Amino acid sequence: GKGNHPHFMHKEIFEQPGVIGDTLQSFINPATRSVHLPGLPFDLAAIPKVTIVACGTSFFAGMVAKYWLERIARLPVEIDIASEFRYRAADMPEGGLALFISQSGETIDTLAALRYARSQRQHIAAIVNVPESTMAREADVVLATVAGPEIGVASTKAFTTQLVVLACLTLALARARGKLDAAGEAELALALADLPSASAAVLAEEPALRALASHIMGARDVLYLGRGTAYPIAMEGALKLKELSYIHAEGYASGEMKHGPIALIDDAVPIVVVAPPDELFEKTASNLQEALARGGRVIMLSDAAGVARFQGQIEGAAAMPKIHPFVAPILYAIPVQLLAYHVAVLKGTDVDQPRNLAKSVVVE
Ligand code: M6R
Q1: Active site annotated at which positions (predicted)?
Q2: Ligand 1 mean position to 357 CA, how many Å?
Q3: Does residue 189 carry a pLDDT above 90?
């Protein structure tokens, strides 16, 4: 049941500190601060390329992983949505690693893409939340999220635990390829270990996020902006808002704004800027400034120092706890979930069962 929560989605958002911790425990040894994957039927060091395929929110988890795998494991990564990938006839180098990300493990397009990758002699890894699912059965290796059953149609805890698994896989690949020494691995493993308490601190910001939701509920369109690993979080925030509140929302890479969408900005369009204090913060900050200069109504998600820089100029903000930039996309997924949730509650839509949507899309 829902316990004391008004909706399954709310319960699942609040389970995140626990299930992130459970998922970490299955991949990280806290004593040695090193990652261990289940026994693999192939050599991680010999992987020439990674291909990631998924749909919806699971696809955005894959987008974050692309940034991590390129930067930390120095691997070439290709990513696509499953409905496109399955018909592209992509040429895949033999012995590549093909990663399929799916909460249900049953999404028909992702499953078809998995079978295509099999025909291309890839090593197949499935990141699924349902261990008995079809994808789990057909994969060479299953990297399970330990999120527990997800009932709400809007994916929340499956997403953050997918990111945890992908972060651990990144560390394992980086180590195997000689791109990360023990000290580097320990630093990033420690950053991951901070997530359960940091995510609990984000949940304590729920009143601030509920207040921000009242600024969004009347909007017709909302823009979400981010750069680097915050870009997929902006995309995910926009998807959450669309599916739950039926408000049109777009996630955009901050730096792409001046190539078109900046024309949309006026005092009727809230702009949610996902700006963790990472290596791209200053770039995002200057895009935020451009939006302000055009009369944009900016809502900022950053840490206290980031928010303080724009206080008095922005319409609203929520301050996140300090966290290592590596794990920022995992933490910043939570405020965009809560924001969309509260907009939906204010609008009175059916939070756990939005119109026209199915929890798993098993027909094409
Ligand atoms: O079960 P899957 O992870 O394969 O599902 C993929 C998408 O259908 C799913 O993430 C969908 O986008 C959610 N409704 C998003 O909240």
Answers
A1: 359
A2: 10
A3: yes
Choose which residue among 107, 143, 153 to substitute to test ligand 1 binding: the one with the highest number of ligand atoms within 8 A of its C-beta: 107
According to the model, what pLDDT value does residue 32 have? 85
Q: How far apart are CA 360 and CA 117, in angstroms?
A: 21
Distance 98 CA to ligand 1 centre (A): 19
For the Cβ of 26 lying below 6 angstroms from any atom of ligand 1, the answer is no
pLDDT grade, residue 30 (50/70/90)? confident
Backbone angle region of 156, left / alpha / beta, with phi > 0 → left and psi within -120 to 50 → alpha: alpha
pTM (two decimals): 0.98
Asked if this assembly's ipTM is beyond 0.85, the reply is yes
Residues with a catalytic annotation lie at 359
Per the CB < 8 A criterion, the answer to whether 336 and 237 are in contact is yes
Q: Going by CA atoms, what residue is nearest to atom 7 of ligand 1? A: 56
**What is the per-residue pLDDT across 99-158, written as a single tens digit (0 to 9) for each?**
999 999 999 999 999 999 999 999 999 999 999 999 999 999 999 999 999 999 999 999
Distance 258 CA to ligand 1 centre (A): 30
Relative orientation angle of helices 328-347 and 157-176, to the nearest 10 degrees: 170
Q: In whole angstroms, what is the distance from residue 127 CA to residue 170 CA?
A: 13
- Whether 333 lines ligand 1, by a CB cut-off of 6 Å, is no
The tens digit of pLDDT for each residue in 158-170 reads 999 999 999 999 9
